[in-house]
Design a protein that fits this description.
The complex is a heterodimer. By secondary structure, chain A is an alpha+beta fold. Chain A has three domains: 254 residues, Immunoglobulin-like (Sandwich), CATH 2.60.40; 170 residues, C8orf32 fold, CATH 3.10.620.30; 141 residues, Jelly Rolls. In chain A, 15% of the residues lie in helices and 40% in strands. Chain A is built from nine helices and 35 strands. In chain A, strand 4 and strand 5 form a beta hairpin. The longest helix of chain A is centred in the middle third of the chain and has 15 residues. The N terminus of chain A is likely disordered. By secondary structure, chain B is α+β, with helices and mostly antiparallel strands. In chain B, a hairpin with a 2-residue loop joins strand 15 and strand 16. In chain B, helix 6 packs across helix 7. The N terminus of chain B is likely disordered. Classes of the chains: A alpha+beta, B alpha+beta. At the A-B interface, strand 6, strand 7, helix 8 and helix 9 of A face strand 6, helix 9, strand 29 and helix 10 of B.
């Protein structure tokens, strides 16, 4: 429906009944300030805060524009008090504006003033227009940047600006929580009743005000009539005025093992759901559901349109790529390997293509969507069932399983089926194995893009097992003289194998072992090797032989059977925890040790065997050590059964690891035979 | 037919270049240790006038493996003084067959402002081929028009390690009466000079340089390879003309840029007099004004055109209360002047461990400005972008190096103070108690002085208490512990300044308990982390940059009922790199540990490398040796 029609219908709508509710307003206005405003001693502010946001007030409303449509008007006013030098950055503002050539965002107004209290008088320094700079970041983005003049410790800064945007699909979200503590954070949206948005709130802070009322709203929409006079529509309507306020919002602090703070920041986001002008008129669905979204994506020129084509341009090359395949699984593997080994991923962020798959094929490079959609296209070309999968990497935050919110996704992989077995493929990383994904992809709900069955694929870190087995064997060396010799072997889990391959490509294998040698100067390390360095589907294995000399004239020898493999520090340092612990995978580390007792010595004391359970069934640590006449044997295993833990379990988890660190540091004591 | 001939003529050079860029034509000696081979480089600079020049660059690399990929990318920088007339790139496969060609319009264009500046006029165009079938070759050509000369590109044929150079050429064409200045390093051939009409041409060339590997603690890579510094004599930018043939002349140019930018508004003048008129000594006045600067200004960087060299004036800084290093130093000089003190503007190359400037070649080798006040007996140095440093102390950011002092008599090189082994101190006392479970509680008092306090001083300025604690925790290398109390006191009255730190911490399982034994490392907090890789054949000299002294005294009260079973003997190392001494004494209920370390800076011959590895290894090991206590039976 055209905006013209909208306007016609709306002109007939009667003003709906509105109500007013008693609401608390903050008595604060740009530039209006008294000496008393400098005194914040009544407010509870974290003593470490470098600046405090006294008020951050945003408002989004709609206005008719001259393109026959609506424009979003976003107004913001911030009052900040700079408490210390560390807070000077709060006096700078960077406003990022997007423009696609036709539509865009514009900074309509900006003003700022700094207030200093000098000998009881308020001195104001105004921001001048010349000090608002434009930094054209790239083709689409421009930053408006300024820093306030006259700022020193104790200054109060008022900043206000207005942004006008053509993109009413993207109603600005609001973060109540930020880098500085905030005393009053308020957002108000006034939406004409024919636009229906859904609101998504998150975070652990509570609303002080969450109110809604209906207000009368008048819009004037113009449309250029070319040579004739412009069409002008006056729309008298009702708008819903929603207002949210949070008070005394603390700063969000980073903790280890959190996928991203984006999942925890207190904020509200919006998504246009549908447009409907009257109760009886047609409803234009914008958001839809995952079925509709999948259908739309598969028709989208910048996503799946090319996947349904015949793609005859790849005929000859794909024949040579898949030549000699005995099965469709082998074909799948060959196509995957071909793309992985011959293509470069230019950007691992985004879900849309920027050029045709044919061009991608020719240039041998593309973004994450282009690479893996090409993979889907090539598999389909060979009649292998394949679909794109959208996901959000861990650092990008969780997706929404209910609504098809595309901006919550930032990554594309491919799922393929053969012989009733499903495979997940990502051809964008040169060292990733077939049917393997990086741990960054394990972030919950991924979504298969298929109009008939847009399934959720749950990529939970709890399903990602990382098993490592290390074994050490030590015997008395034939050459005598207090020499012992041994062998070391360690088979890595998938993720560590991948990291090793990445590391070795940057530094040579030689350097890798040089480093190991430099940290074991008393050991003579020889016969070093790395297995499966280039077989990406296999776990990598490090091995070497070594010998070393004990001080054979000493009465007592001490020896840690963990060698240098023990856990040396607790990964959970902080004593308190606010958020869940989100480890990237399930850890399972086994260490096996077998040592011949040095000639001329006996075992005086062994560490005690132990087994520690984590919360009953969440995991365990065992340390089993035994000796006989000739040998000492140890088996140590840390095994977790899940990757995510509640904050309530934090102390148990921390103590569990403390026990491990303690146990693994214990030593065997050998005593000279008398 | 005409077209056909044209086709042949045009295709001939292409065919030749294709042949040139086949990988087969790279000698094996250049492939050894190389990730990339610079196939051909030609830089031609034609000076039209002191303000204008034309630069043509052609450069080709063959990337041999994935570690060489960064050289396959190309960036063309431009700003107010530099316009890119044309830039293009071509990708060839290993046989020299052209795969792709990109022009200026195909390249992405970005702002070069970066996070450290609020805004600048710097921009760049970038191309990446993202080609990953090795080996491959790229060739780029760029033509730049310079309107405003401040320097010339230096000739550094081998500007990266693991890069071999097949051929590189640098040509500079200037009017006969224009003096080109240059200085050669690791390169003995003078340029070939030819004359043509009223022009003179200088040409440097080099070929077949095998790839070099880096070595730890070596001097900066460029100083080890053949290169030539090249600089203007007369130059002009945005209407400001100068000459940089001598430091004196170059300084005169900067004086011209700063001159009459020192006017202060009346209210600031008044404040200057209120602050200083009643003070007796020059030093007190300097300190008071420096303190005023620190309280009333902050660092903000805005750079447009000549603004990269010219400070915002003192009035601007007075009202905005911000500026960059130039503007703040100029403002400081203006404040001093108002109080009747002759402060100087000093241009310098800042950075901890930055390479020293070439002091006998006057050109812009700088990136920072500070201020100094020469007094009768000594000089007071002022870093005008820091809020906390005491007047007279520079920190490792600008200490011990040459700077260009600028005043009405031109430029003079001056040397900033050096903080040595007896200044850079870390004196620590620990008093700790250990229980039978191996848990430790400790009181730790440390005094950090001069360069040993620099990082902490910045942390105290820029981190909140929570962040300080977080960093403190990340730096303490203990298994499971908690810092229960910490406090800092800055001692700014003496120069160099120092900081007193006091920490209380508890560390669970500090000592390892195995049955009846306790294993205790008496060196709780100061264990050397340095481990050098052994190198079969050391080529380059060794550079040790920092100089310091650490003294640790540790007293650990141990649980009763234990007796020593084993403890390390005293370690004593005296070498040209430093001194190290540590000893352990065990009394009835206490462990007394003492550690003394002096580290020297300096350049040492390559032959000393093995000794240095051993020196660090001994310290590393000694710092980790343990005492074993066993329960009395």
């Amino acid at each position: 429906m055209s905006p013209k029609k909208i306007a016609c219908i709306l002109a007939c709508i009667l003003l709906l009944q509105s109500y007013l509710s008693a609401q608390e307003k903050l008595n604060i206005k740009f530039g209006k300030i008294t000496a008393a405003d400098f005194d914040l001693s009544k407010n509870k502010i974290d003593s470490g805060a470098a600046a405090v946001i006294i008020a951050d007030i945003g408002n989004t409303s709609f206005e008719g524009n001259s393109k026959g449509d609506f424009t979003l008007v976003f107004k913001r006013f911030k009052r900040i008090k700079i408490l210390s030098k560390r807070g000077f950055d709060a006096a700078s503002e960077e406003i990022s504006l997007y423009n696609d050539g036709q539509n865009g965002e514009k900074l309509a107004e900006v003003k700022g003033s700094t207030f200093n209290l000098e000998n009881g008088n308020i001195v104001e320094t105004k921001l001048d227009d010349k000090s608002v700079f434009t930094d054209k970041v790239d083709k689409n983005y421009s930053d408006k940047k300024f820093t306030m003049p006259g700022v020193k410790e104790g200054s109060i800064v008022d900043i206000a600006y207005t942004i006008k945007s053509d993109y009413y699909n993207a109603l600005r979200s609001w973060n109540f929580q930020g880098e500085y503590p905030c005393l009053w954070s308020e957002y108000e949206v006034v939406v004409p009743q024919f636009f229906h948005y859904i609101f998504l709130t998150q975070g652990d802070q509570h609303f002080f005000i969450d109110a809604s009322k209906d207000v009368a709203a008048n819009y004037t929409v113009r449309e250029s009539g070319g040579t004739e006079s412009d069409d002008v529509y006056h729309i008298n309507s009702t708008a819903t005025d929603r207002r949210w306020v949070m008070k005394d919002v603390p700063v969000l602090n980073d903790e280890s093992f959190v996928t991203t703070l984006k999942n925890y920041v207190s904020r509200i986001q919006f998504q246009l759901h549908y447009i409907q002008f009257t109760e009886t008129s047609e409803r234009r669905d914008v958001l839809g559901n995952y079925f509709k979204a999948s259908e739309k994506l598969m028709k989208d020129e910048d996503f799946g349109a090319a996947l349904n084509n015949d793609n005859g341009w790849m005929n000859s090359e794909i024949n040579s790529i898949t030549a000699g395949s005995a099965s469709s699984l082998e074909k799948m593997q060959k196509i995957y390997t071909y793309i992985r080994d011959h293509f470069t991923c230019t950007d691992h962020w985004g879900i849309y293509t920027k050029t045709s798959l044919k061009n991608v094929f020719k240039a041998k490079s593309g973004n994450i969507a282009e690479i893996n959609l090409l993979l889907v296209a090539m598999l389909r070309h060979e009649n292998i069932e394949a679909d794109p999968v959208l996901l959000s990497t861990r650092d990008h935050g969780y997706t929404n399983d209910m609504y098809p919110l595309m901006y919550k996704f930032n990554y594309v992989i491919c799922t393929a089926k053969d012989n009733n077995k499903n495979y997940l493929l990502d051809a964008s990383w040169p060292k990733l194995g077939f049917n393997k994904l990086n741990d960054e992809c394990y972030n919950g709900g991924a979504r298969m893009i298929n109009a008939e069955h847009p399934y959720i694929i749950n990529l939970s870190p709890d399903s990602l097992k990382e098993s490592k087995i290390t074994s050490v064997m030590i015997i008395n060396d034939e050459k005598g003289g207090g020499f012992l010799s041994g062998s070391y072997g360690s088979t890595f889990g998938n993720i560590e194998s991948y990291n090793l391959r990445e590391k070795i490509s940057k530094k040579s294998e030689d350097d890798y072992f040089k480093n190991i040698k430099s940290y074991n100067p008393d050991y003579n390390i020889v016969n070093t090797s790395i297995d499966s360095l280039t077989q990406f589907e296999m776990p990598a294995k490090i091995s070497y032989d070594f010998d070393f000399k004990i001080a054979a004239d000493e009465d007592i020898l001490y020896f840690n059977p963990m060698m240098s493999e023990g856990l040396k520090e607790n990964p959970f340092k902080s004593a308190e925890r606010k958020y869940p612990v989100e480890m990237p995978y399930i850890m399972d580390e086994t260490y096996v040790f077998n040592m011949e007792i040095p000639n001329g010595y006996i075992v005086d004391e062994l560490p005690k065997s132990a087994k520690v359970l984590l919360n009953g069934n969440d995991g365990y640590f065992e340390y089993l050590i035994v000796k006989n006449e000739t040998n000492v044997q140890l088996r140590s295993r840390i095994k977790l059964n899940k990757a995510n833990f509640n904050p309530d379990d934090y102390n148990t988890l921390r103590n569990f690891f403390a026990d491990i660190v303690k146990k693994q540091s214990e030593q065997i004591v050998f005593k000279k035979k008398k | 037919m005409k077209n056909f001939i044209g086709f042949i003529v045009v295709s001939l050079p292409l065919a030749l270049s294709a042949q040139t860029y086949s990988v087969a034509s790279i000698p094996d000696s250049l492939k050894k240790n190389a990730d990339v081979v610079k196939r051909n480089e030609e830089i031609t600079i034609e000076i039209k006038s002191p303000a204008k020049a034309l630069i043509n660059t052609r450069i080709a690399y063959t990337v041999l493996n994935e570690d060489g990929n960064e050289h396959g990318d190309y960036i063309a920088y431009y700003d107010k003084f530099v316009s890119v007339n044309s830039v293009s790139g071509t990708l060839y496969d290993q046989n020299g067959k052209e795969i792709k060609h990109v022009k200026k319009k195909d390249m992405q264009d970005f702002s070069g402002t970066g996070d450290e500046n609020l805004i600048t006029d710097a921009r760049y165009k970038i191309n990446r081929f993202y080609y990953r079938v090795y080996p491959y070759t790229v060739q780029y050509e760029e033509e730049d028009e310079i309107n405003g000369i401040r320097n010339f590109e230096d000739w550094i044929p081998q500007n990266a390690h693991r890069m071999a150079v097949q051929q590189s050429k640098y040509v500079i064409i200037a009017p006969k009466n224009y003096m080109i200045r240059y200085k050669e390093f690791n390169f003995s051939q003078p340029p070939v000079i030819t004359e043509n009409g009223d022009k003179r041409t200088y040409t440097w060339q080099i070929s077949n340089l095998p790839a070099k590997l880096t070595e730890s603690l070596a001097p900066s890579f460029v100083t080890l390879t053949p290169h030539v510094l090249i600089a203007p004599s007369d130059f002009e930018a945005e209407g400001y003309a100068g000459n940089m043939s001598t430091w004196k002349n170059f300084g005169a140019f900067f004086y011209q840029l700063t001159k009459s930018r020192d006017a202060l508004p009346d209210n600031v003048k008044k404040e200057v007099h209120e602050l200083t008129d009643n003070l007796k000594t020059q030093k007190e006045k300097i300190a008071a004004l420096y303190n005023y600067l620190q309280k009333n200004t902050r660092y903000v960087s805005i750079q447009f055109g000549i603004g990269g060299w010219q400070p915002f004036d003192a009035t601007y800084v007075s009202t905005k209360k911000y500026g960059d290093c130039k503007a703040l130093s100029n403002f400081m000089v203006a404040l001093l002047k108002e109080a009747g003190i002759d402060g100087k503007y000093v241009i310098i190359r800042a950075g901890k461990n930055a390479q020293q400037i070439v002091s006998d070649f006057s050109e812009s080798q700088f990136n920072h400005v500070i201020c100094c006040v020469p007094l009768l007996k000594d000089t007071v140095w002022l870093e005008c972008t820091d809020h906390e440093l005491p007047a007279g102390y520079l920190s490792s950011f600008t200490a011990d190096r040459w700077g260009l002092l600028v005043d009405q008599s031109g430029g003079t090189l001056v040397h900033t103070p050096k903080y040595g082994v007896n200044d850079n101190l870390q004196i620590r006392r620990i008093s700790a108690t250990l229980n039978g479970d191996g848990n430790l509680s400790a009181f730790i008092n440390t005094n950090y002085k001069a360069e040993q306090q620099d990082e902490l001083e910045m942390d105290l300025e820029y981190r909140s208490k929570d962040e300080l604690l977080k960093k403190l925790k990340s730096e303490i290398d203990l298994p499971t512990y908690d810092v229960t109390k910490f406090d800092y006191k800055e001692q700014k009255n003496n120069i160099p300044p120092s900081i007193d730190e006091s920490i209380e911490l508890t560390a669970n399982n500090y000592a390892q308990v195995s049955g009846k034994r306790l294993f205790i490392n008496p060196n709780i907090l100061n264990r050397s982390e340095t481990k050098l890789k052994t190198e079969e054949e050391r080529k380059y000299p060794i550079e040790l940059r920092s100089e310091y002294k650490d003294v640790d005294t540790v007293e650990i009260k141990v649980p009763s009922g234990y007796q020593p079973e084993a403890f390390p003997a005293d370690t004593k190392i005296e070498s040209k790199f430093g001194k190290y001494f540590c000893s352990v004494k065990i009394t009835a209920d206490k462990i007394l540990y003492y550690r003394y370390r002096e580290q020297y800076s300096g350049e040492f011959p390559a032959a000393d490398y093995t000794d240095l590895v051993n020196y660090y290894d001994k310290i590393y090991k000694s710092d980790r040796s343990k005492i074993v206590l066993v329960k009395k039976e």
